[in-house]
Amino acid sequence: MDVTLLVALVIALALIFDFTNGFHDTANAMATPIATGALKPKVAVAIAAVLNLVGAFLSTEVAKTISGGLIKEGSDGVQITPTLILAGLIGAIVWNLVTWLLGLPSSSSHALFGGLIGAAIVGAGFGAINSGVLVSKVLIPAVLAPLTAGLVSFLATKIAYGITRKRERDRFKIGQIFTSSLVSLAHGTNDAQKTMGVITLALIAAGVQPTGSGPAIWVIGACALAIAAGTYSGGWRIIKTLGRDITDIEPAQGFAAEAATTATILASSHLGFALSTTQVASGSVIGVGLGRKGASVRWGTAGRIALGWLITIPASGVVGALAAMLSQLGLWGVVLDVVLAMGAILTVYLIARKRRIDARHFTQPAPGVFVRPKRRKKKPAPTTGASSV
Amino acid sequence: MTIDWLAFLTVVVASLVSACLLVTLFAVGLRLSDGTAPWRRPVSIALFVVCGLVVVFGIYLIVPFLHP
Known about the structure:
Order of helices and strands of chain A: HHHHHHHHHHHHH
Order of helices and strands of chain B: HH
Number of strands of chain B: 0
Oligomer: heterodimer
Structural class of chain A: mainly alpha
Structural class of chain B: mainly alpha
Shape of chain B: elongated
Strand content of chain B: under 5%
Largest sheet of chain A: none
Strand content of chain A: under 5%
Number of domains of chain B: 1
Number of domains of chain A: 1
């Protein structure tokens, strides 16, 4: 079929994926400041959007290596074609939307990898997949990421509550603004690049761009805008899960969680052990829930999230594989693929509209009042007490 | 399948130390800003400045062309 049309479709779907990536991951940085009232919901997503936009222009290192390793490409011919990339993207988009609908903070990168893996298996057989790389780069880190972040944020919470007294803790909110912004910036420098990498891969596979070249400037710009728009639209369902449903978060905990998330992400990206931002952020929230006396972690919610992580790669892989099978029918298969994908997007959108969750669902605690005030004992201070100490 | 456990351990230790350091600095800063003794305020401001520097270091780590 017409290569230009195919590449155009890949670019369009890649940008849609980038958009879902944006709203899926707003929660990583902004769930905790929204939960504690450090930032108003709309302000929080606006900051995250701007930082994602800026971050996308800062680096193209990840984009250059996106396809390296996981899917064997190149050497003995075309194993990954634009059609397969298209199928993989459909798998990733559909799974990202389903998890968003369920409010599950799952990793967008895993969805993308899963979709591409599924498509590659159909297109080129199981030989196309580096299973060793899959285990060591994706599965084991998925277990280690929340454990690490949880441990760090647990200790950070203990320290924060050990040092400060109750009436001082409200001002952790000021710190939260900075730490959550750091998480956002780090996210922007990483995630938009995955889409840039995919688009560049498609352009290279179609022979439009020379092998080994980096993303073109219009690709960088388009990806930056798509992820920023997605971030600004706010994945309120996931923000609710991460900020409200796992545990009740006070400002000191929010600060500890974001400090742990930032530290873990930066350490992992600079010391050569890649961890997923989403899993780190979720682990941090669980850690602060365990770290504050009197707080409780709703393990049912945490379990649902963990289950979501487990099935992300297989599920988006299955969708990607099905899309790849359809696309083997030729032009009409590809068209049918795209039509079905649009149908899926529309269906999820319509279901989501019925049970809307948006910025207005986040009634924030007034300054000085904690998330779940307990009955005060003696002092008639205007600030009702936290449940700890 | 090879896991670089040493790299992982480095990541754990580095994130543990840096996150706890930042939280400690900020928490002590908050604690000291809440008192009457004249020396407390400048010390707490100094601590917040150090926190700011930690954040700047974070930005330095995030932005690639600041560190070749």
